[in-house]
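ugh ok fine here u go
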Amino acid sequence: MSFDPKPMPAIEVSHLTKEYRLGALQGLKQTLLDTGARLLGKHIPERPLFKALNDVSFTIEQGEVVGIIGHNGAGKSTLLKMLARISTPTRGSVKVNGRIAPLIEVGAGFIPDFTGRENVYLNGSILGLSKKEIDKKFDEIVDFAEIAEFIDTPVKRYSSGMQVKLAFAVATSVESEILIVDEVLAVGDLAFQRKCFDRVEDLIKRQGRTVLLVSHNIRQVERLCSRVALMDHGKLIADGDPRQVCDMFFAQNDEKIKSNAASTVALRAKTQMTGEIELQDVAFLDATGNPTERLTYGSDITLAVTYRVNSALFSPNFGVGIHTIDFLYLATSISEEKFQGRELAPGVYEIRYHIQKFPFLPGVYSIRLGVSAGELTRTVFYQEGALNFQVHAVGSHRSQSMQEGFVLLDGDWFLSDISSFAIGQPVVQG
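structure:
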């Protein structure tokens, strides 16, 4: 009886921790002062430790394409450096089964006084290629980098874009089982970026490489990766389906934006008040009529606004608007003649505005309110940024949000092959 053994994982990370001592890098003067103080027997307190990685564990199987996302300082690049053996862990272990091609700091090993040709051979050897292998790939590398006429020019004469192009071409020529990519797909001009993306896509789909990809381009991560890991403050907080994990990252980002929005909006918000009416409270209500801070895309929601009327108002007209936190006006609704001819005596009133299928995609927004009164509709109250709120992704694809607009068009798509039809003849769509 025979059986095929299960292939070994490409990468195994177990309880990986990397610590740095804050302030360890300091000026010569301070170093000498601290040394002198120690020689005199004085106690110099140890600087606190910072955990760039904090007990991270995961396994990546051969052929998997894994995206690693998170805010700046989350530990993404530190993790990749551990995997590429550029840095060593404080605790824990990393086991890699296969040859690694790291695209982490492309061009970092270039020597400015060497020509492009000499740096190709130098970088190739650093990445583990033999001279014979580099000879075989040389023309392909130069063609891909689009710098054939400058290949025998010292690299110090290159633009930064040319250097990165050449470095990317060398790094992706390595025939490795594992490819580590850290924010290097957006190199050069737009046409070259397309070439970079196509090459990495080819390595993934046609050659079946194991790939770790770090990028702030979440759409790119979702498209390329079969699995996504989310890091935050050195910890791995989510690992799984790309869409779900990316949605979590967007929501996390929105929470930070929302927490900072109050002060940002308050500085720029416009207000106009005559004192005849004052805003007492503004809140969203859920389907049961209870206050809620959680709005979901496409759900029914009610906005409840409480005003104190200090002087009688005749024919009040209420307005509600939505704007972004950088004051791009998105929508407005006005009660128009709903309360025409009605007089509000001094007192406290609540007005509710019900919105069916809230149309705005996930993100952070703000409410603006207005009240006018009288036959000539004079403004008695106006306030921007009255309530900052966050729309969450439930039943919508979160990455289809702020980068592509604020509402999702609800239409039907049709595709027809019209190649066999003469111009001017009707086409049946379906």
